[in-house]
Amino acid sequence: MRLILAILVIILVSINVASSWSCADSDMTFPPGVTIKCSDSSCATDEQSLTVSFCSSKYYCDQTTFDCIEKSDQGGPCSDDNECLTGYECVDSTCGAYNYAQSGETCSNTNQCIEGLECTSGACTLGTNGCTDNDQCAYGKYCNTTSQDCFDRISDQQPCIIGLDEKPCGSYSKCVPTVLGSNSSICVPYFSLGETKACGDEATDETNACDISKGLDCFSGTCQLLSANGYNQTQFSGNCNDPNLALDPCNENSQCTCIQSDRGVCISQVASSVDEIRTCGAVSMRMTACAVEHKCNEQAGQSVKNCFWQHCGEEFCGSLADCAPIYKELTSELVCVIEGLLPLPCSTLGYSIGAAGSSISLISLSSVLMISFVSLLF
Ligand SMILES: *[C@@H]1O[C@H](CO)[C@@H](O)[C@H](O)[C@H]1NC(C)=O
Ligand SMILES: *[C@@H]1O[C@H](CO)[C@@H](O)[C@H](O)[C@H]1NC(C)=O
Ligand SMILES: *[C@@H]1O[C@H](CO)[C@@H](O)[C@H](O)[C@H]1NC(C)=O
């Protein structure tokens, strides 16, 4: 689901420095042991007491004065998107919901429709220029970019050709071989395959095809229990920038995350136990089922009014804790940091993603985000 992907890209930009191996560029250069606070008044750092303050979700940080300033609600004034509550954009100096309505959804103005659609007779419709992107088509259709028109996708259980995206399976379906090694393939819904079922060819293991709520993932072309295969994680604690480290010190299942300007640790990207993966997988499956039920296209974005947030937002925000149990331990103090890194419109919609509890360190916070990263990735 691209929504999740978009969120995760932002997380990676925020806390991952693996690509360049330079901790110096990281936003997150706090030593362990710092106190992180959510504040409604100040976003200044107090070096004496090692306290780093972030504005809570309904405020933004004025980068000149380090004051927290209340964000505008829909219709309120702004000069930049970050001055609006998460999920609204700043257009013509006013915060509002834009760019969210899918093909066929009601609208009163073209800027409410997903880019490329026009508001015609009260509904978002494909303009005379045709489509350039699948998300401009109604749910269940794809864009033929040659003819720039929308056509039906391939139904589940019908033949498909792996790697041929032009006529794709459903938004939440995958093209997999009928049996391992066969060159005949069919579309199957996400997370629908049981143990030993073919889920890829030799070159690709399809993610999201196997039933993750049973702890199954795709390995060497078939769905296998994670416990049998495990994710092999490297343990590393040292300087990510050490010139003697010719290679990425962390393996593919972990990432070097900066904790100081010159020091990083490998942090697991995956939920640490099979139980966690199963529980979290069940969340991914429910979110997919919700998107399918409400015919939400993959394109979601952050607008509070888009199909996914309107129909699945409450459960998504509420389920983050199931997915990463450590969320349950978050103090409300820390929720702002998560909300800052994951720009989810949860608080704008009135849903909480954290609960009262004890404080956790930044390092576990990063690992929480990494857990959500892989577990929710689809
Ligand atoms: C896409 O449209 C072009 C031009 O009309 C057509 O030749 C082609 O077969 C179409 N592709 C699919 C997959 O429908
Ligand atoms: C499948 O593979 C067989 C044998 O390699 C080949 O003869 C056949 O043309 C292939 N079918 C398709 C649809 O690619
Ligand atoms: C995990 O990785 C280490 C180092 O690459 C390797 O020696 C070990 O055999 C791997 N374990 C499994 C179960 O693949």
UniProtKB/TrEMBL annotation:
Keywords tagged on the record: Signal
Signal peptide (from-to): 1-20
Cross-referenced PANTHER family: DD-GDCA PROTEIN
Protein known as: Paramecium surface antigen repeat-containing protein
Organism of origin: Cavenderia fasciculata (Slime mold)
